[in-house]
Every structure is written in structure tokens, then in C-alpha cells.
From TrEMBL:
Cofactor: FAD
Protein name as it appears in the record: Flavoprotein, HI0933 family
InterPro entries to which the protein is assigned, alphabetical: BaiN-like, BaiN-like_dom_sf, FAD/NAD-bd_sf, RsdA/BaiN/AoA(So)-like_dom, RsdA/BaiN/AoA(So)_Rossmann
Lineage: Bacteria, Bacillati, Bacillota, Clostridia, Eubacteriales
Keywords associated with the record: FAD, Flavoprotein
Record organism: Clostridium gasigenes
Length: 401
């Protein structure tokens, strides 16, 4: 029976350990005193375990290196994952945007399930243990060196230590230097699924205003990107599910330049329809005619900025009407930067996929060294897709070939 070491007990590491345990003696090394510490945070603590879309649609939600994930997704799909949970008596539900949550809204249920399954499959877990180096001989991995100075030998090592976001959960990026030290390329790390800092000062006056089903448009080089989702204005800019999705598409560009985005707050209404609503009751103010369509605080701010809060349609100049509709249908905002990577839900960047065999997750540089999850340069939009990447790559990396 071969010996396998898995480094990192997040979703990728847990699934790698379970997959490998079918035919091997598995040791799972975790620097915290519990497994799945970051997993607990997903879905606002409710655990957004995956997404219920078809696997083909899930590929469309991958932002970086989607082709690399073909084998992983088809070897262990979202359907396979949900079947696994069902077999282990975990009840789940599908919500808006096909997001899958535990029926109880408790991430602890998922953690407990994994704990029980790891025990059942005789996976040995070393808690409060950090890997300080890898043991490499003649281009082949032989084991790891822990922070206690102990050498642990194995026939196969799987690295699943995550990225650099949420460092307090253990994914502080320290493993990247070790991986780089054995010859792997680490692509630049960026904050992904992260709130955006806006240049225009007026957004501060909208702090706390939440907007539904906003359409975000941006042009990156020649590529047009369109994202729909909810958002909220903050003291520094904008946040919310739609903004987090958008951030993963523009984070790399923001390193060198600002990015202009366009927001449509009423995508189901044409400019002409909004014009008609503005003029619908000449005896009411423009504000009163529009307030059934949009949040009142939002309307007060944009109409106040244009000095039109008390104006009636009969007194409205055409150029001012155009300005109102521009604010609603084509608000232009300049993104200066993202918040720091510590605040990101996901890290973009990591071990270059060019140096990993996509069919097995094995390193092309070091024999019997494998990678899975966020440590690899793959990431997706928010909605359970990044967890599915972790589970799929983790499962594939633990398989025997």
C-alpha cells in the first residue's frame, strides 16, 4: 500500500485525502487545529458547496484557465459531489443563481460529514502542523519536512494549501515560496471576488444603498464583459455579488491602469420607457414618478446631485432628462483598485497550469508531486464554482493511475 501525504485540509485537501484513501495509506497535514476552516466561511457561513448548473455552464463561469479543468470537472462533477453528499445523508437545497447550500444553512454539517468520512477511511490527520519544505531526490518527491523538524516520507505528495486570501484561515501564501524553490513557476497573485474601490467621490453619499439585478459592462482590450448581479454602495466604492464577479475579470488590468465600468440599474426598461415614466404624472415631482422603480435613497442622491429633486416634468429641460436617464442606464464609474488580497474570497494566480498534467494534477517537473485547489492558477466567478474546482481537482489528484 503506497503512502500519500496531503498538505492542507481545505476542500481540495479533504477530497484528495478521501480519494487517495481508497487504495493508499493517507496522512493529511493541517496547520490549524481543525479541518475546513476557510470552508466554514463560504456562502456567508452557510456553505455554498457547489452550483447546480450543467457542467458545460460551469465552464463558462471559470475566469482563468478553464481548459485545464476539463479532466477534473468530468472526472468528479458537481453531480458527483451532490451524489456523495446524498449518500452521506447531507440534505441540500438549490437557491437563486443555482447556488447549492446545506438545507440547514450550517457549514458545520459539511465539516462534520468530512470529519466522519476521513475517520471511516482511516486518514491520519496531523493538526497544528506546518510543512516547511519538500524532500526532493533526483527529480522525485520523497516526502515533507514539518515545522517540528520531522521528516515524513511518502510515495506521493499532494499540495492543497490554497492561495493568499483569508490568511487567518491558514492560506497565507507561504507554500508558494517552497513550490517556487523546487522549480515551479508561480504566476502573479491577485485578489479575486473582491470589492472595488471607486474614484468618483459621490458614491460615498450612496453608502449603504443596495441595488438589485444591476448590469455591469466593461471593455478589456477588445473583449466586452457583461455581468448581472446585486450590489451595494460602500464608503470606498462598491461591493455585493455582482461586483465580486466583475472583480475577477478586471483585477489583472487594475495592476497597471484604472478601469471604467458602466452600470445599468434598470436593464428591463429602455431609455424611452424611463422617459415616459419621468413624465407620467405632470402634477408630481420627477422623484415621485420614479420612486416605484428604484430605491428612494438612490433617487434622492442622483436627483439631488442634479438639483432636480423638487422638479416637475413640466419644468424639466431635455438635457437634464438625458442626465437622469444616463445616471440610471449608463452610470460611469472609474475603478481605481481592489481591496487588498487579505479581503478577497479567492486568490487568482498560483502554480502555472503549464507545469501540471491536467489529466492527473501531477507536476511535470517533480515526479509524484501533485497540486489541487486554489494553489493552482485557476479561479471562477462567485456562486459555488471555486469550491467545485477545489473538490474536482482534489478528487482527481488523489486518484491512482
Amino acid at each position: 500500500m503506497a503512502k500519500v501525504i496531503v498538505v492542507g485540509a481545505g476542500p481540495a485537501g479533504i477530497m484528495a485525502a478521501l480519494s487517495a484513501s481508497k487504495n493508499n495509506d493517507v496522512t493529511l497535514i493541517e496547520r490549524n487545529n481543525e479541518i475546513g476552516k476557510k470552508l466554514k466561511l463560504t456562502g456567508g457561513g452557510r456553505c455554498n458547496i457547489t452550483n447546480n448548473r450543467s457542467i458545460e455552464e460551469i465552464f463558462d463561469k471559470v475566469v482563468s484557465n478553464k481548459k485545464f479543468l476539463y479532466s477534473a470537472f468530468y472526472t468528479f462533477s458537481n453531480t458527483d459531489l451532490l451524489d456523495y453528499f446524498t449518500e452521506n445523508n447531507l440534505e441540500y437545497k438549490v437557491e437563486y443563481d443555482e447556488k447549492v447550500f446545506t438545507k440547514s444553512d450550517k457549514s458545520e454539517e459539511v465539516i462534520q460529514l468530512f470529519n466522519n468520512d476521513l475517520i471511516k477511511n482511516n486518514v491520519k490527520i496531523l493538526y497544528n502542523t506546518k510543512v516547511d519544505d519538500l524532500i526532493i531526490e533526483n527529480g522525485e518527491i520523497k516526502g515533507v519536512i514539518t515545522n517540528y523538524g520531522k521528516n515524513i516520507y511518502a510515495d506521493k505528495v499532494i499540495i492543497t494549501t490554497g492561495g493568499k486570501s483569508h490568511p487567518l484561515t491558514g492560506s497565507d501564501g507561504s507554500m508558494f515560496e517552497i513550490i517556487r524553490g523546487v522549480g515551479h513557476t508561480i504566476n502573479p497573485l491577485y485578489a479575486a471576488l473582491i470589492p472595488l474601490v471607486i474614484k468618483e467621490m459621490f458614491v460615498k453619499n450612496l453608502q449603504g444603498v443596495a441595488m438589485k439585478e444591476v448590469v455591469f459592462k466593461v471593455k478589456i482590450k477588445k473583449k466586452k464583459i457583461e455581468i448581472t448581479g446585486d450590489m451595494i454602495f460602500t464608503h470606498f466604492g462598491i461591493s455585493g455579488p455582482g461586483v465580486l464577479k466583475l472583480s475577477s475579470h478586471i483585477n489583472k488590468v487594475l495592476e497597471n491602469e484604472e478601469v471604467e465600468i458602466t452600470l445599468d440599474f434598470l436593464s428591463d426598461k429602455s431609455r424611452e420607457e424611463i422617459s415616459n415614466i419621468i413624465k407620467s404624472n405632470p402634477n408630481k415631482t420627477i422623484f415621485n414618478n420614479l420612486k416605484g422603480l428604484l430605491t428612494q435613497n438612490f433617487l434622492k442622491e442622483i436627483l439631488g446631485a442634479l438639483d432636480l429633486l423638487e422638479t416637475k416634468p413640466t419644468d424639466l429641460k431635455k438635457e437634464d432628462e438625458i442626465k437622469i436617464i444616463d445616471f440610471i442606464k449608463e452610470m460611469k464609474l472609474t475603478v481605481r483598485e481592489t481591496l487588498t488580497i487579505k479581503a478577497a474570497m479567492v486568490t487568482s494566480g498560483g502554480v502555472s497550469v503549464k507545469e501540471i498534467n491536467a489529466s492527473t494534477m501531477e507536476s511535470k517537473i517533480i515526479k509524484n508531486l501533485y497540486f489541487a485547489g486554489e494553489v493552482i492558477d485557476v479561479d471562477a466567478e462567485t456562486g459555488g464554482y471555486n469550491l467545485q474546482i477545489a473538490f474536482s481537482t482534489g478528487y482527481l489528484s488523489g486518484c491512482d493511475y
